[in-house]
Amino acid sequence: MEQLEKNLTTIHIGNTPVRKCSTLSALFNTNIFIKEEFHNPGMSAKDRPALYMVQDAIANNKIQPGGTFVEASSGNTGLGITLIAKSLGYRSKIFVSKSCSDEKIDALQSAGAEIEICENSNGLHDFNSTQFRAQSYAATNDNAYFTNQYYNTQNIRAHYKSTGPELWEQTQGKITHFIAGIGTGGTISGVGRFLKAQNKHIKIWGVEPRGSVLRHFLKSGSMPDCLQPFEPIEGIGRNFIPGSLDVEVIDDIFQVESDDAKQAARRYAAETGILIGFSSAAIVACLSKYMEAMRIGRHDHVVLFFPDHGSRYISKLYAAEGQAIHYPQHIL
């Protein structure tokens, strides 16, 4: 355990900046702040649960030295696990769906992950899903551990213990709204639990693609009678309910279309010179669509959670526009 803690001291995850966005603040006539998670080593918020899940597995002997960490991921969690596992002397095998961006595939391969591409990420009930195949691989191979971010309690804990306290401190407790895309549910659940404990009046709002089931589940407590394909916004949206989702701390979930998110990304890049990720763009599109219904006041402090960087989605969001890439300062 001592050696593990010593090795982990070289991995600096978290304490990412909160930046006031003058462009969005002026557009929506309120105070808009952005939590910039692309300043993490793997350039995403998923480094946080990756660290907690890997640390928990090693500390509790769920995996032995030199073993293989296995995950079903849209790319970012897989990269976080790969980077952390490699630094500690472990291997990684990441199962991604065929919709995963080329940029994420390249990043995973460059980091040393073994990759398998699957048909979809529809959950453990689908034999062709990333989740089923990851679980199956871990169950049939020696010294392989499936971190299983969709059901691992460390996913929520990572954001409860790190992201939530950071936001409270960085806003001096003035935060009134927190808006995040929902994929596994870990971010919004962990942050929501912490912020609601500080001030129960803080609004915790989620964003998902049109056709995803999470809003229906929040409102009714059940799955919809008929499942339909949801709008393709990489990293968010589900047709099953992840175990990492705590709807008790979520006030509402809003749905957006993929095309609206793409337009929001390109518009934001044109106005600010900054490339944002797909789910970040979905949050901006959500504000544009629902701002009046949200009734956000001009003195409120609204924090948008931007989990990764637009350089992960050049082919999906920006290639046709020929936008220049603006990388975070720490990796230039």
UniProtKB/TrEMBL annotation:
GO term, biological process aspect, one: cysteine biosynthetic process from serine
Lineage: Bacteria, Pseudomonadati, Bacteroidota, Sphingobacteriia, Sphingobacteriales
Reactions this protein catalyses: O-acetyl-L-serine + hydrogen sulfide = L-cysteine + acetate
Reported cofactor(s): pyridoxal 5'-phosphate
Family, as annotated: Belongs to the cysteine synthase/cystathionine beta-synthase family.
Tryptophan synthase beta chain-like PALP domain residues: 11-308
Database matches in InterPro entries: Cys_Synth/Cystath_Beta-Synth (IPR050214), P-phosphate_BS (IPR001216), TrpB-like_PALP (IPR001926), TrpB-like_PALP_sf (IPR036052)
GO molecular function: cysteine synthase activity
Keywords: Amino-acid biosynthesis, Cysteine biosynthesis, Pyridoxal phosphate, Transferase
EC number: 2.5.1.47
Protein name per UniProt: cysteine synthase
Gene3D superfamilies: 3.40.50.1100
